[in-house]
Amino acid sequence: MDLGTVLASSWASGISLYGVAAVLGIAGRLDWVSAAPILEEPWVIAISLLLFAIELVVDKIAVLDSAWDAAHLFIRPIGSAALCAVAPGQTLPVPVLIGVGAVFALSCHSAKASARLFVNTSPEPVSNVVVSFVEDGVWAAVMALAIAYPKVAAVVAIVLAIFSGLAGWFLYRAARAAWRRIGERRRRWRDRHAPRPDAA
User: Fold this and answer.
1) Nearest by Cα to 146 from 31, 29, 32
2) In terms of Cα–Cα distance, which of 6, 92, 32 is closest to 40?
3) What is the pLDDT of residues 25-63, one digit of tens each?
4) Domain range annotation of the chain
């Protein structure tokens, strides 16, 4: 497997680890990439597709998406590291590949999770669904590039990892501030509408 495919897959795993695993497995069976034999197993592809389908639905539901992201804070980087560890034909040492895979996935995950926290401050559900579809399009495009043009994908993945890491930090701060303002407004509303004891 080309290094560019590994790097791009690592970053895309921060959005959809299960989708990436399924794509690599299917692409390996079609001889589009040299995937790890374990990923090409039919049962691995089936489980990956099932989890991806669940993720696809949960990711469109406000608050549930953030809960899903919180549960995958460690799953996505660890899963990405595992994909790198079993990637065939690599010249880089396995510990380096594992570290890069985890960092790239964590960078992408931080931007995704922080963006969802910020979007979920809006009471309407449309923006959440739109952002989810955009994320689906981004990781799918990155994986298509990883398979078709690995060298270009390597550069794109490095740029995206840097950008998403910075974006994740800024979006997290913005989301915290937004949720704090919402909490303050709710407290003020409760204070105004709380029953007052009768004057003695």
Assistant:
1) 32
2) 32
3) 999 999 999 999 999 999 999 999 999 999 999 999 888
4) 3-193
